[in-house]
Structures are given as structure tokens and as C-alpha cells.
From TrEMBL:
SUPFAM superfamilies recorded: 6-phosphogluconate dehydrogenase C-terminal domain-like, NAD(P)-binding Rossmann-fold domains
Keywords assigned by UniProt, alphabetized: NAD, Oxidoreductase
Domain 3-hydroxyacyl-CoA dehydrogenase NAD binding: 18-193
Protein name: 3-hydroxyacyl-CoA dehydrogenase
UniProt-recorded Gene Ontology molecular function terms: 3-hydroxybutyryl-CoA dehydrogenase activity; NAD+ binding
NCBIfam families for the chain: PRK08268.1
GO biological process entries: fatty acid beta-oxidation
Database matches in Pfam families: 3HCDH, 3HCDH_N
InterPro entries attached to this UniProt entry: 3-OHacyl-CoA_DH_NAD-bd, 3HC_DH_C, 6-PGluconate_DH-like_C_sf, 6PGD_dom2, NAD(P)-bd_dom_sf
Lineage: Bacteria, Pseudomonadati, Pseudomonadota, Gammaproteobacteria, Oceanospirillales
Domain 3-hydroxyacyl-CoA dehydrogenase C-terminal: from-to ranges: 198-295, 423-504
Organism: Billgrantia montanilacus
């Protein structure tokens, strides 16, 4: 028996017999882990042949498990025997719980649940795997809405070890507790969240792509550079444009618009006109052969990094204000063997380095009374260990920009240089992620620890949004947002009260 195939949790499931309606990508994944958890699973689908395909598909996975000695033959046989066919909906009559994974249409789901209410025992639970519809709205069509619940898995179900448990406004606590126990028995982390647009994970995921698209839309830099920065500096598994290409704009653009409108045009979720245009042009991503990247034999063509310019050392004067920032930049200058100026102001040809938070290079330079032609801003949010990022004012001379690039890359660390932006790239994206996560906590969508764990598992971020805020420093995140708001006037950047209170009190963002 294998850890990878069999769940580690040995709690017996609270139900014995489970029905699945819709045996597509999601239905078969749910069926697989339910059978592995010891349930008898009845499969139903409208389309002829769909159930056989699903059983063959799941059986194939178990066969491979046996070949790789991750599963015993006896277990595989037992699992296979527990997958039953429900030719008609009436064959689901004996199920304790039915999970639907049919088309994402409110009416179709309501009609199905109404039909199931006529067939099932009164105590049986009706669970929906919807990603974007209101559980309360689906339940409103039922005679007994207290037995209807959201049970939202992620694709691919066996590998994405998280399920959101979403009671509708009239779901009974008993049903919620038992469905949560079922999720645990199936080996998944259960994230209990309120029935709000995007629930928890898809709601928390709104900032990453939309802020990256905004940065691209402002011509700060190109998509490949934004991806590189977020992977190298931010520790994200993939950049936002790689992710948009993987998901496909037909799906992601629709999700961006849907959540934005469901929150009555909340500016924090505002989509970008860029994706609508690209969708119209058929640039969907991987599936259409071209998205932000072009795909050849399924592999993206990633443009090379721009070459580093030649530049000779010149004296450096550090205009960064915070002591820690000053020290980081001074170490860098000394490490490169360049002359560090210690006077009250820069000499006539010194390169001036500043380290703004949420401010652009221009505003920072002017505020400090420095010569804009010789000023370069360096992002210190993630330190200087990985990729180093710099931005320049429109007045910065090429010689000084080149000198800064040579200095930052002296030890072979990659460098990205781009035009002026309030908050570089990493600062903007991270601040928006932390802010959206904070607002989710503020709205009571889920408990703070649940928010973090669900985002790690569901979105694969290096940390959940609240832990990310604490990692980078919640006061710094707040300063980035406040400066972004002051400079742009865009309410997208207004800080969540959850973040502001905890940051100003010096408390962790996970403080309930
Ligand atoms: N694919 C994902 O990444 C993902 C993730 C989470 C949730 N979801 C949700 O899960 C549900 C299913 O998504 P999917 O990707 O598995 O879709 P899919 O198209 O792969 O499968 C849907 C299946 O349902 C069947 N079906 C459609 N209407 C039916 C009906 N009235 N009665 C019986 N069978 C019916 C279809 O024949 C098909 O086999 C949707 O609500 C979707 O939003 C999808």
C-alpha cells in the first residue's frame, strides 16, 4: 500500500455510499479518492459511454499504481469493485450523499437536485462541486435546502489535497460537519468557508494575475520578465502569465470577470482589458498554441533575458532611508569593490541608489532632493539574494542605469531593469495578494490559518497570504499599499482594515 495512492488518514468516512453525477475531469477524480477511502461509489452521466470511460481511466491509474508497487493488487481489485454504474438517476436511490460535477450552469444543477430530491432518502446529502455558482442559489430550488452543500475539489482531484466545504445560508451544521469529516476521510485538507463569490481559494487568487496584468498594461516591463521576477524573487512556482497560458484565457478571463461582477465591481478584482482582447483574438494559451507565450511542441518559447550592458565602476551614494536597506546596499557596493560615498549628499558623478516601498523612482528621488539623471531604485522587499530588480526615472541617464545593472549583477545574480512603477513588480503583486487575503479574513470567509493553508494547497503559493504579509513585514506591505493608493488614487490599493490594524499594532496577520 502506498502513501501516494492511499490516504494517510484512517478515520472512517461518515457515509458508506456515494453517488457521483457527471464523470468528467472532476467527477472521476472524486470517484477515485472516494473508492480509496472505502466508499461504494455509484457513477452516473448523461452521455453514453461516459461511465465506462471514467471507470477505465480510474482503473488505469490503479493499474499503474500496482505496476509501480505503490498499491497492492488486492487493494486495486477492492477499489475497482467499489465503482458501480448508475445507469439512471433512480439507481442512486440508496446513496447517503450525491456529489454533482456536471456542467457549470445554475439551472442544470437546480434541476438535477430537484430530481434527486424525488429519488433519495430525506437524510441524504446533496453536494455540489461548483466553482463559481452560489451554493445558496442552487439550494434555493430544493425542498430541503438544509441538506445542500458546496464540496469544491480542485483539478486534478487526487493530487490537489484540498477541498472547500461551503455551507449555503440554510445548510444544517450537522450536514456541514459530516461532509467535512468525509473530506478528511478522503485524505484532503478541508477548508470550511462561507458561500461567497469564488469561495476561499479562487477569491484569494484574484490578485496574482490581475496585478501582473496591470503592470504589463502600464508597460512597466514585458510578461516574461514579470514571470521571472515572481518566480525568482517571490518563490512562486510559476509566473502569472505562464499560469494564465496553462489555464487558458477562455477559463481565466471568465473567472476574473465573474468574481469582479459578483462583488459589485470591487476594484481589487478589476480584470484587465488586455485579456478580453487576447481572448477575442483566440490567443487562449497552451491549448490554442499561443497565449502570452508561443508554444512549439507543447513547450513555451521564452525570450532570452536582455544582455547586460558593459559599465565601469563609479562612486555610489546610497539614498535609501531605512537603516536595514542602507546596510544591504552598502554590503552590495563593498562586495563589488566599488567606492561607497559617505558624505551628506552625492558627489558630482556618483550613482544614487534609493529603495522605495510602493513609491516610484521619480517620486522617491524628488522627495529626497536627489538628481533624477543619476538615480536608480532597487527593490529590497525580498532582499538581494536572488534576482535583483531596478527601475529608473524617465530622466535617468543610460550610463547610470548601466552602471547600476553592472553593480547589481557583479556576482552573477540575475538582474531585471524596467521603467518606473509604483512598487516595482514583486512589491505590487505581493501587497495585492496580502491585501486580498486580509480582506477575506476581515469578511470572515474562513479562519486565518485556514486561509493560509488553503492558498498554499489550492494555489501553490510559497506561503498563504497572511503568512506572506508577516514574512515580508506587514508594515512594509501597508506602506506599499498606502503609497500606491496615494500615487494612483485607485481604490484597488486601499488597505484592508484587517491588515492596517494588525500592522499598526505590531500583531501577526494571522491574529484572529
Ligand atoms: N475542471 C476544473 O478544473 C474544475 C475545478 C473545480 C470545479 N469544477 C466544476 O466541476 C464541475 C464539472 O467540471 P468538469 O471539468 O469535470 O467538467 P467535464 O465537462 O469534464 O465533465 C462534466 C460531465 O458531466 C456530464 N453532464 C453534464 N450535464 C449532465 C447532467 N445534467 N446529468 C448528468 N451528467 C451530466 C457530462 O457528460 C460530462 O461527462 C463544474 O461545475 C465545474 O465548474 C471544475
Amino acid at each position: 500500500m502506498s502513501k501516494e495512492i492511499l490516504k494517510a488518514d484512517t478515520t472512517p468516512p461518515p457515509y458508506q455510499t456515494l453517488g457521483i453525477v457527471g464523470t468528467g475531469a472532476m467527477g472521476r477524480g472524486i470517484a477515485q479518492i472516494a473508492a480509496q477511502a472505502g466508499l461504494t461509489v455509484y457513477l452516473h452521466d448523461l452521455r453514453d459511454g461516459a461511465i465506462d470511460e471514467a471507470r477505465e481511466f480510474i482503473g488505469g491509474l490503479w493499474d499503474r499504481g500496482v505496476q509501480k508497487q505503490r498499491l497492492s493488487e488486492t487493494d486495486a481489485e477492492r477499489f475497482r469493485a467499489s465503482l458501480k454504474e448508475a445507469t439512471t438517476l433512480a439507481d442512486l436511490a440508496g446513496c447517503d450523499i450525491v456529489i454533482e460535477a456536471i456542467v457549470e450552469q445554475l439551472e442544470a444543477k437546480q434541476t438535477l437536485f430537484q430530481q434527486l430530491e424525488e429519488i433519495l432518502d430525506d437524510r441524504a446529502v446533496l453536494a455540489t462541486n461548483t466553482s463559481s455558482l452560489s451554493v445558496t442559489a442552487i439550494a434555493s430550488a430544493c425542498r430541503r435546502p438544509q441538506r445542500v452543500i458546496g464540496f469544491h475539489f480542485f483539478n486534478p482531484v487526487p493530487l490537489m489535497k484540498i477541498v472547500e466545504v461551503i455551507p449555503g445560508l440554510r445548510t444544517s451544521d450537522d450536514v456541514t460537519d459530516r461532509v467535512e469529516a468525509l473530506g478528511k476521510a478522503m485524505g484532503h485538507f478541508t477548508a470550511r468557508a462561507t458561500d461567497t463569490p469564488g469561495f476561499l481559494v479562487n477569491h484569494a487568487g484574484r490578485a496574482f494575475g490581475t496585478e501582473a496584468l496591470r503592470i504589463l498594461g502600464e508597460s512597466v516591463t514585458d510578461h516574461a520578465t514579470i514571470d521571472r521576477i515572481l518566480v525568482d524573487q517571490g518563490g512562486f512556482r510559476m509566473g502569472p502569465f505562464t499560469l494564465l497560458d496553462l489555464t487558458g484565457l477562455d477559463v481565466s478571463h471568465a473567472v476574473m470577470e465573474s468574481i469582479y461582477h459578483q462583488y459589485y465591481e470591487e476594484p481589487r478584482f478589476r480584470p484587465s482589458p488586455l485579456t478580453r482582447q487576447r481572448l477575442t483574438a483566440g490567443l487562449l494559451g497552451r491549448k490554442s498554441g499561443e497565449g502570452f507565450y508561443r508554444y512549439v511542441d507543447g513547450k513555451p518559447e521564452v525570450p532570452d533575458e536582455p544582455p547586460l550592458p558593459d559599465a565601469s565602476p563609479r562612486p555610489v551614494w546610497i539614498g535609501a532611508e531605512a537603516d536595514e536597506a542602507k546596510a544591504q546596499l552598502a554590503d552590495l557596493v563593498r562586495g563589488a569593490g566599488w567606492a561607497l560615498e559617505n558624505g551628506p549628499g552625492p558627489s558630482a558623478d556618483a550613482l544614487c541608489l534609493v529603495a522605495p516601498l510602493g513609491e516610484d523612482a521619480t517620486a522617491c528621488t524628488l522627495r529626497l532632493g536627489l538628481p533624477a539623471e543619476r538615480c536608480v531604485a532597487v527593490d529590497l522587499l525580498a532582499g538581494l539574494d536572488k534576482r535583483r530588480c531596478l527601475m529608473t526615472t524617465p530622466a535617468t541617464l543610460a550610463d547610470y542605469r548601466n552602471a547600476a545593472m553592472a553593480l547589481l549583477s557583479h556576482d552573477g545574480t540575475p538582474v531585471s531593469a524596467f521603467s518606473d512603477s509604483n512598487g516595482f513588480v514583486l512589491q505590487r503583486v505581493v501587497a495585492c495578494i496580502v491585501n486580498v487575503g486580509s480582506e477575506i479574513a476581515q469578511q470572515g470567509v474562513a479562519e486565518p490559518d485556514t486561509i493560509d493553508r488553503a492558498v498554499e494547497l489550492g494555489l501553490g503559493y510559497p506561503r498563504g497570504p497572511l503568512a506572506m504579509g508577516d514574512h515580508y513585514g506587514s508594515r512594509r506591505i501597508l506602506a506599499i499599499l498606502d503609497n500606491l493608493l496615494a500615487a494612483t488614487g485607485d481604490p484597488r490599493y486601499r488597505a484592508s482594515p484587517w491588515l492596517r490594524r494588525r500592522a499598526t499594532l505590531g500583531l501577526r496577520l494571522t491574529t484572529p
